[in-house]
Amino acid sequence: MQFGVFTVGDVTTDPTTGTTPTEAERIKAMVTIAQKAEEVGLDVFATGEHHNPPFVPSSPTTMLGYIAGRTERIQLSTATTLITTNDPVKIAEDFAMLQHLADGRVDLMLGRGNTGPVYPWFGKDIRDGIPLAIENYRLLHRLWREDVVDWEGKFRTPLQSFTSTPRPLDDVAPFVWHGSIRSPEIAEQAAFYGDGFFANNIFWPKYHFQRLIELYRRRYEHYGHGKADQAIVGLGGQVFMRKNSQDAVREFRPYFDNAPVYGHGPSLEDFTEQTPLTVGSPQQVIDKTLTFRETFGDYQRQLFLMDHAGLPLRTVLEQLDLLGEEVVPVLRKEFAAKRPAHVPDAPTHASLLAARADNTTEKERTS
User: Luciferase-like domain: from which residue to which, for each copy (predicted)?
Assistant: First the structure.
């Protein structure tokens, strides 16, 4: 099982000091967080994609390419790559290039985005969100697997004898997670292709995401990719920790109360009771995260949102120390002990390459 962090890259004023980081400071802080995540033994760093203030990560592959050069082991991913407003040809080429630079330590999460004005900024209509996601991914999937592609669809100009360059590293496409907050069509799409499904699992009660994951698992088995409990599932989560739970609540409350994403609504206590947000001690984070398996079944990737709402970089790095030293080692042990042997690990470039070699050998043996 993979554990990591994801960032939305918000530039938010620290409510306790009134200090707002510059865009440059926030971007460089994200790089520092990625390096720290590797240092403390996490498996994944993922960045969102946004094209509107107060967010800065408009070019995930640029950031991840830079981080690739400053890290050695950590898997680099996106918390959203906008399949609706990005050209699938550009996605295919950008992520193949990143694959080569990062020696295969790359996957991506496709999503429609949740900011309506982005669509017209890129010449699209939000009412076409689902059809765009379906058509664009159909093309992207082919671009990574076919050397020469002829294509005609509704939302982009046709392609004639087109070859995406560079080709994927070792001719193995980056693994794709389809991310969704509310769309059963996206769960269906992930199941159809045998890809991963990432349930955001923040802001909303767990039962909402439980329905989406159950749909994905059923359809994954329906399409012949394996048993339902072998489907590749990822979850988000939010935590803030201190050694003493009362200290965590006291310190995090002003950030929660003023955060653009969930401030000025339910109380911190109500929100932590009703959603996956955990504010407390490392043991409380462990206890609550372990309940995710009871709700969603065995899964492959757990990402935590930790650097939002104006939290200073120093505090975020302290959080990562607690996560890497006290929380994740226990979670690894507990999840591994409970996971059946037939449930697969999270796919990596190495495992996908090995699976392709095994399939080739089997075909040669039976031919």
Answer: 1-297
